[in-house]
Amino acid sequence: MMKSSVLGYPRIGADREWKKALEAFWAGKLAEGDFLQRLKEIRLNHLQKQLNKGIDLIPVGDFSFYDHILDTAAMFGLIPQRFNYKGGVVPLSVYYGVARGTAEAAASEMTKWFNTNYHYIVPELQGATPSLTENKPLAAYREAKAELGIAGKPVIVGPLTFLKLSKGYDSSEFDAWLDRLLPLYVQILRELEQEGVEWVQMDEPILVTHTDDEDVKRLGQIYSTFTKAAPKLNIMLQTYFESVERYGDIVKLPVKGIGLDFVHGYKGNLQALQALGFPADKVLGAGVIDGRGIWKASLQEKQTLLQTLEKIVPADRIIVQSSCSLLHVPVSVDRETKLSPVLRDALAFADEKLDELALLTRTLGGTSAAAELKKHDQDLIGLRDSEERNRQDIRQAVAGIRSVEPKRSEPFAKRYAAQQAKWQLPLLPTTTIGSFPQSAEVRKARQLWRKGEWSQSQYDAYIQEQIDIWIKLQEEIGLDVLVHGEFERTDMVEFFGEKLAGFAFTQNGWVQSYGSRCVKPPVIYGDVAFTGDMTVEETRYAQSKTNRPVKGMLTGPITIMNWSFVRDDIPREEIAYQLAYALRQEVEALEKAGIGMIQVDEPAVREGLPLKETEKAGYLEWAVRAFRITTSTVQDSTQIHTHMCYCEFHDMIDSIQDMDADVISIETSRSHGELIHSFEQNQYGLGIGLGVYDIHSPRVPAVEEMTSMIDRALRVLDPQLFWINPDCGLKTRGREETVQALRNMVEATRIARDKQSALK
Predict the structure, then answer these.
(1) pTM
(2) Which fold has domain 413-759?
(3) Where in the chain is the domain with CATH 3.20.20.210?
(4) 599: helix, strand or coil
(5) CATH class entry, domain 3-66+111-384
(6) Could you say which DSSP state residue 106 is in?
(7) pLDDT tens per residue, range 264-311
(8) Which positions are catalytic?
(9) What is the pLDDT of residues 717-743, one digit of tens each?
């Protein structure tokens, strides 16, 4: 009989009680002892829920005080030297210092966890000597068994993945670091074996990315060492997010189980399994329930898939699992009382996915009739057949625009001439990325309006007052191209989703982004359609208050898609084109209203890159196409801007140029030197602004700092095409620091212009 398991459960709690506890502790409102007790209660509640749902193998050790990669680093004493860590169990003050920074030391870098919207803290290895500070998996196992009688499955980040995701060492030192860490892992596993642990989940998601011969050799060393050290312990080598590379080599490793993703890695993993078979001495962890998506699974289809797998692997050697940790989905649909019944009934968050796993396993075990699966799947039919998912007007329109190559009517050189003739901009034009500080008063006004305590006219008048203030400030500061400030917007994706058909918004669909930061992504559940002007009113009002150009500000199609939960019944490419078609209508409306500069931001293009190298070019091709669909119908004299957060520019320069934006601004202040180096190796012939100061800090940079950044950029970039701007939006900054930083930026620009004049 098959067993069920999950790879991890959301930390935040149904009411975000985890987040609230963290923030209360950080604010000094919760004593450390009370904080630890509160987190224990939350942790045990999550385990009890999985037990009550009928999950057979329950993960322990997946719960975290902030981030599981930071936990692993702390367990091995890998704390950056600047935090003055003296050894032993890492204190909470040091642990949170690494994550959030202190008055004396900057926080460690944070980056995306593979291709999800979760962020982990990057371990820093330079100058560190690893040691086992505490056996966290053992402590988690003991707690679950003592408190709830659960013989859990400890979850550990594998050594290959941990090292590949760390920084602060040269590639030639990789094997030396592996040699340092292996004895510590061995100690953990031996102690687990002595405790009577049956299964350990060793997470190695790095194996779905490029895996070379050296990595295969290392894997052999790692898992041979583990098996010899703890021969009675069953190790489930767990992969997720895609199909594994080097399947034939990985299934030969001396472990008891191999966990594969049959949702996002469905095709590759199934083909490998069918072509090469599966070892008779191993258990297959079959990840058939989507751990990242929010939709109910068709359990009849999953049953068919598992029956296919049974032809290769006997049922008693299959564990039915989530495809990855449920960390990436909200906790429960129960609280979504305002969604339409058709949509609500088609959703499955973490708790509902536990039900699906239990039901699927029971049915396959023969203790439940297949009618249960059919009844479960019935809820999917209503949404599938709904009008919102079958808008032929949208399907036909998108098919029409796909049949025509989207491009501007003239090449950049001719557009540049037309735009210069129209705008008469000075050398090195100055601007900002779009948003200005959203004070507590702005947020309160929005709340009053949403609650109905303010009328629409009251709220509109307030927003216009804010626009008036900041248009005047921008003119006084001396900026050349202005923005309206985005005071009416809560979020750069939610704002547009609320104005487009095909979107829905949950009440409690929170997921962890990083630390205590939780986000509530919009749900793209139907065909996306333009329903009316979204940004025209505020932008046109701002333009009426100044003779200088005001940029219209939009979020691009790929970013809206990548930062939402999206439907899974059509390809993402199709969703991107629907969004592009809707946004193009907004671009055209702005232009018709007299707005001649329009910025379509795409900070999340790189985030959507597939994990497989062979699929990246295809994704970039249609991502670029979606951007051009959005922007290509405007007149030559209309200037299209875009903004991207920092990316490894050198490996995307062709795609970025193919977007054919007249001006691109890139978030670079923290990695300015790296990006300038990219331009030394690659030519870029369109307008570009490299952020000259970091908006993520309240610190006001000196004029000299910005001047230095500008000077270095102009060594490799054409001054005629160079713009000067902050590196991102200013929504989170305070008014005074923003004004002073922009004054310094304008002064640095004046100095740079004088230098350029002297060169002529």
Answers:
(1) 0.93
(2) TIM Barrel (3.20.20)
(3) 3-66+111-384, 413-759
(4) strand
(5) alpha beta
(6) P
(7) 999 999 999 999 999 999 999 999 999 999 999 999 999 999 999 999
(8) 696
(9) 899 999 999 988 888 888 999 999 999
